[in-house]
Specification:
Layout lengths: L5 E4 L5 E6 L2 E8 L2 H23 L2 H4 L10 H10 L14 H16 L4 E6 L2 E6 L4 E7 L7 E8 L6 E5 L13 E6 L2 H14 L8 E5 H4 L9 E6 L4 H20 L5 E6 L2 E5 L4 E2 L5 H9 L9 E3 L26
Length: 333
């Protein structure tokens, strides 16, 4: 029998850790104490049902979008990948992390009146902002070490409430060579799917410095099957880096034009391209910021997009959730 979901407050008593099989969330709410308590109780109650709900339709979710699933999270996943289904291979699993984060945040905000809240699912984040509030979110290139390469400010007056990161170094398999592609969108599931698509586009097909392996050889249950996923990127020339980033930017611009994303930052070999500068500050962090971020590391690594703690109203850093190399749902007993 599968172990029950693990739910606990992290040291300091401000953040909630929710863990069940392959799903690992960090949650933080801001507001009156009784409202925070109600939000955390609602998050815990909804979280206890999430994995079983997804497992009941897992076979469908591992296939290209077609038949409409029953579960509310699964439906959100299908809707997030639907804009891409006609042009490329993509399954609803590309949006699972963002969709789960959205669902838990929705349970919290339905149950309580909060000024701000976030649900961080390994760097795919759903945000709640009451009028006048804001978050500052840090972008991390490498999940295995402090590598902040920029920040994004999200204000309540702006529509973005979801942020997601994809790249070959992250938890999920990627078809491209981006170290990190971070996307802002109106919802976390939408950002999750878009980050996957843009990161896949940052590529140099057939380049000898790129190591690729069939997804099913690394994970027999992968929804990517025989598709080649990136496992290493060697030295690239400046022109090659530009070419790969240009390809990703072209896709990001298309998604922006179609209203699917609000902003994107693409990072490869120390080079960053930013789409829509109204949100992003693509800066080199100070030594103090790097030390603060390093201090937040847990034994599991770091999330690749995290709310940062600094003087209010900036949110707290979520402990990392890179224990798993891939975003998959394991429904073992």
């Amino acid at each position: 029998m599968r172990e029950a979901a693990q739910i606990r407050l992290l040291p300091g008593g401000r953040r909630l850790h929710l863990h069940d099989g392959p799903i690992d969330l960090i949650v933080e709410a801001f507001g009156l104490t009784q409202e925070i308590n109600a939000a955390y109780q609602a998050a815990a109650a909804r979280f206890a049902t999430v994995l079983d709900e997804l497992c009941s339709e897992l076979a469908l979710l591992r296939q290209p979008a077609g038949k409409i699933p029953v579960g509310v999270i699964a439906k959100r996943m299908v809707a997030a990948v639907a804009p891409y289904a006609q042009q490329t291979f993509i399954t609803p699993m590309a949006a699972v992390a963002g969709a789960v984060a959205e669902e838990i945040l929705g349970a919290m905000t339905f149950a309580a009146s909060l000024s701000r809240a976030y649900v961080n699912n390994g760097g795919d984040i759903a945000l709640h902002l009451a009028p006048g509030e804001k978050f500052v979110v840090g972008m991390i290139e490498r999940p295995d070490r402090p590598s902040l390469f920029g920040t994004a400010t999200l204000a309540s007056s702006q529509p973005a409430r979801g942020i997601a990161t994809s790249g070959w170094r992250g938890r999920s398999f990627s078809l491209g060579i981006a170290d990190a592609v971070t996307v802002l969108a109106d919802r976390a599931a939408v950002a999750d799917a878009a980050a996957t698509i843009i990161a896949n586009a940052v590529d140099l097909p057939g380049h000898p410095a790129v190591v690729r392996v069939r997804a099913r050889d690394l994970a027999p249950d992968s929804d990517l099957g025989a598709l080649l996923v990136t496992q290493g990127v060697g030295k690239l020339s400046a022109n090659e880096i530009d070419a790969a980033l240009d390809a990703g930017v072209a896709v990001a611009n298309s998604l922006f034009s179609n209203g699917l994303i609000r902003s994107a930052a693409l990072h490869l070999h120390g080079n960053t391209r930013v789409l829509r500068h109204d949100h992003w500050v693509s800066n080199v962090p100070s030594e103090a910021e790097m030390l603060a971020l390093a201090a937040k590391k847990s034994g599991k690594g770091m999330a690749s997009a995290v709310p940062l703690r600094a003087p209010e109203p900036v949110a707290s850093a979520a402990e990392g959730m890179f224990a798993r190399r891939r975003t998959q749902i394991n429904c073992g007993t």
